Amino acid sequence: MPDRTDPPLATGATAEVLAWKDGQVIKLFRERASFHGHELAATRAASASGLAVPAVIGGLVEVEDREGIVFERVDGPTMAGYVEDHPDEAVGCAVRMADLHAEIHRRDVSGIVELGQILTWAIDRADALALDTRKAVLGILDRLPGGSALCHGDFHPHNIIMGASGPVAIDWAMGARGNALADFARAWLISRLWLSDVGSGKPKQCWKAFWPAYSRRYRDLIPCPDDELADWRIVTAAASLGLDGSLDWIQAATALRRDFVHAMLNDETHPWTA
After folding, report:
1. 65 and 149 share a domain?
2. Are 204 and 87 in contact (CB under 8 A)?
3. Other C-beta atoms lying within 10 Å of the C-beta of residue 142
4. Domain of 192, in residue numbers
């Protein structure tokens, strides 16, 4: 059992991470959900492919009537914390993040959920978009190519631990098998929200250097056709409106994503395209 007198090691919208046995942590989910098994499978697939990820210990467990997953403990700051503490190293960390993301996408996997299924489900429930808009986005998704690349689904500096042996990718809750460009587009969307002064105040200068450096490095490593990437950006922005419940309270974040989808479908300008 986790020691409830100790504060969580990390907290998020859907779970908290607590110290477990020696060398282990447990991720305890706030609510039961059928997709928790997807995180288990995606993390195992990433580990089996040779990537630096926390090892899974066993399967889903029950603790205090909550579902959880036990992982190998990886100590170190998140890349987000490290960059803020060492702003002069922002560009170097961005390159390391891009290198790791490209390495993830070079892994072909099977036996885990298809990214297209997740995106379709999320777009269908994106109530901020009108039904005809959702249908238009689903039409774009239908004509985009699939793939067998390992995709993290939520790759950003808070989900990377600066471990003793190098960066470690954590939180594979949205890990899936699909087109690498979709996963890169998702990281692009996160970067736009990160830099949009939404909810958490003006972004620090280090992030204004970090995100362009990440994008440049990734595109040097993985070919990214502009037209296809533009379509994936529309799809991932629409899907995020049905997927990212933790952002719903930030009205401006919802408006930015909704307006971006509308602008791109109607060949209009948007602050994110400047």
Report:
1. no
2. yes
3. 9
4. 79-273
Three-state secondary structure call for residue 61? strand
pLDDT tens digit sequence for 51-60? 999 999 988 8
Residue whose C-alpha is closest to residue 123's, from 261, 271, 269: 261
The neighbouring-strand residues paired with 169 are 160
From 161, 168, 171, select the one nearest 77 (Cα to Cα). Answer: 161
Alpha carbons 151 and 104: distance in angstroms, whole number: 7
| Same domain assignment for residues 191 and 254 | yes
My answer on whether 46 and 94 are in the same domain is: no
Mean pLDDT of 227-245: 94
Which are the contacts of 90, defined by CB distance < 8 A and separation ≥ 6? 83, 206, 207, 209, 210, 213
Q: What radius of gyration, in Å, describes the C-alpha atoms of the chain?
A: 18
Domain assignment present for residue 1? The answer is no
- Do 18 and 109 reside in the same domain of the chain? no
Q: Identify the band that residue 75 occupies on the pLDDT scale cut at 50, 70 and 90.
A: very high
Residue 213 CB burial class (10 angstroms; 0-12, 13-18, ≥19): middle
Last-in-domain residue among 43, 72, 101: 72
User: Same domain for 140 and 214?
Assistant: yes
Question: 10 Å Cβ neighbour count for 160?
Answer: 27
Instruction: Answer yes or no: pTM beyond 0.85.
Output: yes
Q: Under a CB-based contact definition with an 8 Å cutoff, are residues 264 and 270 in contact? A: yes
Number of domains in the chain: 2
The tens digit of pLDDT for each residue in 181-219 reads 999 999 999 999 999 866 555 678 999 999 999 999 999
pLDDT at residue 2 above 70?
no
